[in-house]
Design goal:
This protein has twelve helices and four strands, in the order H-H-H-E-H-H-H-H-H-E-H-E-E-H-H-H. It is α+β, with helices and mostly antiparallel strands.
Length: 261
């Protein structure tokens, strides 16, 4: 329903991490078996946990390198269809006025989050609701050629051209895509033009996935666009330069001072 809980989750997690560190520094103690204990973290998620996996390949396998980075300012389930639509835009440049229908096939978990209830998704009432709307996101991407922060605003979610195109988006589950999920977040899009021409494309991995990673230039562009809203260009450039050689930086105060507007 477009509530603000998503805005809170990441900040709360970051705050808890800092709080845990500060408490530990002051001698605060916690249960020693928080992971493997009878009422521990692992048993909360599995009836048959394997504690040895925590230390498997430690020092050799770094799961942070398997993290997906979101290039678009919306729900993760929308990234795969957006990757397809931007590939189509780049190759075919479809005129929004000539689009009759857009058929999207995606994985089952995405349906209830970004495609249903349909009335809310084709006519979002808030920015957050738009960020969880697959029809709106595809429509704004086609019309504006982007799906970043500036595409999710109170003004644009009222734009009639975008809303009219969103109504032409139909979403359905594809069980073949489900078989590869969550290893692959695939999707397929078929655009039917008014002259009956059909444009169709399918992918297995979203842009930003480890299998389809952002380039260094795309990383820099994302950071520059976001930080540029509060930092000047010189600070933004200095931060990028400093982070590039972070392994040799002895004093992080130089970096933290740059991050202050």
């Amino acid at each position: 329903e477009g509530s603000m809980t998503k805005r809170l989750h990441p900040g709360e997690a970051a705050r808890n991490g800092i709080l845990s560190m500060e408490l530990s520094r002051r001698g605060y103690t916690g249960p020693k078996t928080i992971f493997e204990g009878k009422y521990g973290f692992l048993r909360a998620y599995s009836h048959d946990p394997n504690i040895s996996k925590i230390s498997d390949e430690i020092g050799r396998r770094f799961l942070i390198m398997r993290t997906a980075v979101k290039p678009y300012a919306c729900c993760r389930y929308i990234h795969s269809p957006l990757t397809v639509i931007f590939d189509i835009i780049k190759k075919y440049k479809p005129n929004p006025k000539n689009i009759e229908k857009i058929k999207v096939k995606t994985v089952k978990p995405a349906i209830n989050i970004v495609a249903e209830p349909r009335p809310n998704k084709i006519n979002p009432k808030s920015v957050i609701e738009a960020q969880f709307s697959l029809p709106y996101s595809l429509a704004v991407a086609i019309i504006r050629g982007a799906a970043f922060v500036d595409e999710y605003t109170n003004e644009l979610i009222k734009n009639q051209n975008i809303l009219d195109l969103a109504k032409k988006v139909e979403v359905e589950n594809d069980t073949k895509l489900d078989k590869e999920f969550p290893e692959h977040w695939g999707s397929e899009i078929e655009i039917i033009m008014k002259n009956n021409k059909i444009i169709k494309k399918q992918i297995r991995n979203s842009k930003g996935d480890p299998e389809n990673p952002l380039t260094q230039r795309e990383f820099d562009e994302k950071f520059t666009k976001l930080s540029g809203k509060i930092l000047d260009k010189k600070k933004t450039g200095d931060i990028i330069s400093l982070v590039r050689k972070l392994d040799s930086v002895k004093d992080l105060s130089n970096l933290t001072s740059l991050c202050v507007a």
